[in-house]
Each structure stands twice: as C-alpha cells, then as structure tokens.
Amino acid sequence: MLILISIHLACHSPNVHFQYLEIYGLISSNVAPLKQDGQTHTDPKTKADILNKQSESVFSKPQPLSLAQICKQYINPPTPKMPPITISIEGVDKLLQGLNPHKASGPDEIPPTILK
C-alpha cells in the first residue's frame, strides 16, 4: 500500500512525495554529524559553519582589478597578429570567374554579372 501511495505522489506532486517519504523515515534530509579538529558536531548552526568554511576554502574570492589592469584590458586590448595578405591579379580574377551570376548582390550591392 505504501508503495502505491508513493508512486502516485511521485507522479503528481514531487514535493508532497518527498515529505511523505521523510515522515515515514524512508528518506532523511538532515546533514550527518560532521567532524572538525577531531570533534564530532551535531548542532545545525555549527554544521552549517563547517560546510560554509569548506566551501569558501575551495572557491577563490574575486579580486578587484587595479586601474592599470582596467586600462590595459579595456583601453588597449591585446590584438592577435595577422599574417601578411598577398593579393594577386590572378587570384582576384579566379574568384571573380567563380561568381554565380544568378545569385544576389553582396553588401556592396554590385550584382555578380557586373563583377564578372
């Protein structure tokens, strides 16, 4: 009977299902006792403090940027070096010959038939 009620609640109301399982001792939402410095702690506030200190120790706090860092980052952002471009008459001619005259104009609004 408990299984049928549990399945019905799980399908229709997950929050009520969780409370139901907790009431009948089938699930526990409590944090187990924690050890710190050789002592076992069961007080909820102490356990919260222990978990908070652990969380703070693994995540670094963001440091504010100095004025010099802000200027370097936003005023003079690093730009990657671009290799030199070689343009030849033969290369341009090859690209123009490959244009489809039935396609639409590009951003310059010059039809491919004129470019060809």
Task: Give an overview in words.
This protein has a two-stranded antiparallel ribbon with strand order 1-2. The longest helix is centred in the middle third of the chain and has 15 residues, at 44-58. It contains six helices and two strands, in the order ααββαααα. It starts with a helix and ends with a helix. A hairpin with a 2-residue loop joins strand 1 and strand 2. It has 116 residues and is mainly α. The chain has helices spanning 2-12, 14-23, 44-58, 67-75, 89-97, 112-115, and strands at residues 34-36, 39-41. Helix content is 50%, strand content 5%.
- Helix count from the secondary structure assignment: 6
Radius of gyration: 34 Å
Secondary-structure element string: HHEEHHHH
Q: How much helix, percentage-wise, in residues?
A: 40-55%
Strand order within the widest beta sheet: 1-2
Largest sheet: 2 strands, antiparallel
Form type: elongated
Total strand segments: 2
Could you tell me the strand content as a percent range?
Answer: 5-15%
Ranges where pLDDT stays below 50 over 5 or more residues in a row are: none
Mean pLDDT: 79
